[in-house]
């Protein structure tokens, strides 16, 4: 049986005239409710069955971490979802206030552990804006490469575990094959496979190793073949399409009202991408497209990630061509540590080294915010400086936290299995939610 | 189901009310399309159409050409520099607010005007990106009041960003922006939880990140940090000093672990002995 025959059969089964009940008739009834009704659980139910509360999580494989959901159900249909977060809350924002600016780089990647480079980059960009630091060209280019590799890494986990939630085991192995190669690149550059902490205020921790650009090029070739495989195997899979199409539709006006950003917003048709709209790290000089879809359903959100692989690969290829030898740290000794060999000959270097390690630098008084685009949406660090060597206040704009609000909207009227689909395609990272 | 309104991807065919309520999405359109034209069913199985936003020319180039054109002409006829489309100074004046002197474009909003200002910004198409709670208790510079709440407002199409700053004293409540933007739900709950600012008109003002039995608001500057005994719900009690003493091996501590193996000294290290009655 060809795909076409299968699709025809499937649609015939949905036809009300063919004698079968159209699928999700119940759901369309629920969808007439307004956003207010959805968020407060006041939806008109067709069947007056007894309401049931179902607890999902916090230890549940398909909640992507420790998210607890209390789901009010009317038969098989979700009436209200109440997420309970905070199981991973470790008070990063308070910790930042008691660490020097340079030490903060250790904490930033631990929030969103799948796209760590986004938080790291956002943090150092904010501090650099405070300090007016000059980042060398090479450091910026390496940052762009790693930022995009991090996006690919995060989307690979999305493809793998997202479909694992839906019961498909194979994608996990396919996507994690590429994910491991991607992590090899991270390990080569800074020694860590996760929570890298490779960026520094004013540049990078150290230069990339010899042969690393070639490793990246080889990975990109592997990745391109991988994306083709994912598209044929998973995105075009009729079983997956049937579970994802039309499920959890978020219209653009609702998405903006709920503060959605990133691929979830672009899947609803709003072409908002900080790489294009608020360029940082020289993204305005790269040639890439912002991919959007108008469907706003789970399938669109899934496809959005697959299409973004291609755009990231394009950006990395251009960045690799621009990579020229040069320094990777701001030459200002008040910001960057002096090279090790200088400590043996220069007293001044020793003093700078001592001051930076024991106390750190003192940015001027001020408040800054630099928006960046992570794999999940807008990441920004609002940093308040009082002139001391530690930030006075750091507020993380975590995209997963805000995006999670869409769950309460999108799940109403869906079946319980669709809730898993919607949660998987909204793609929250609980470290990012709880911080 | 109306086959006229469920016209594929063309959202213009859907009445406004249906778009607002989230109807007329992909599911229904694919059904109605299948009813109308079953021959196209296989086409719908493909991924939906990609809309690619073309890369706009970098703004740097525009400036270069503008100044290049101005070189040939007399300086008197030089056109005024084009206004930055992201500049919000005009918008702040239009709203009748004063601008703060921070690096980010910030407007000072009196707390009683916040809701009204937010509503007029929402009408202009702005969205709420973030809400920041700030405690200036130990700040080195004088500040008008102890707390500030900043709303990070952003326009998703013309990319203007504006921060609304409201100064608050301890115990002073603030109008919730939930009736204006639904995004304020979690954001205000977080500020309430960590900073202790109350929002009037928020339908569900509960803790969101810290445990239910934690008293106080951790991001306040007077929240004690470390060395505080932590009381858990059923009377369990963690004394940091005793805990640390247990880890360093000075006392038996909470766990009974004496830390000998970790400390690794030579003569006073005893061989591990199983306590009576098995491991605790």
TrEMBL record, chain A:
Skewed-composition ranges (Basic and acidic residues): 1-17, 24-38
Main location: membrane
Topology term for the membrane: Peripheral membrane protein
SUPFAM superfamilies linked to this entry: HydB/Nqo4-like (SSF56762)
Keywords on record: Cell membrane, Membrane, NAD, Quinone, Translocase, Transport, Ubiquinone
GO molecular function, one term: NADH dehydrogenase (quinone) (non-electrogenic) activity
Broad EC category: translocase
UniProt family annotation: Belongs to the complex I 49 kDa subunit family.
The protein's name: NADH-quinone oxidoreductase subunit D
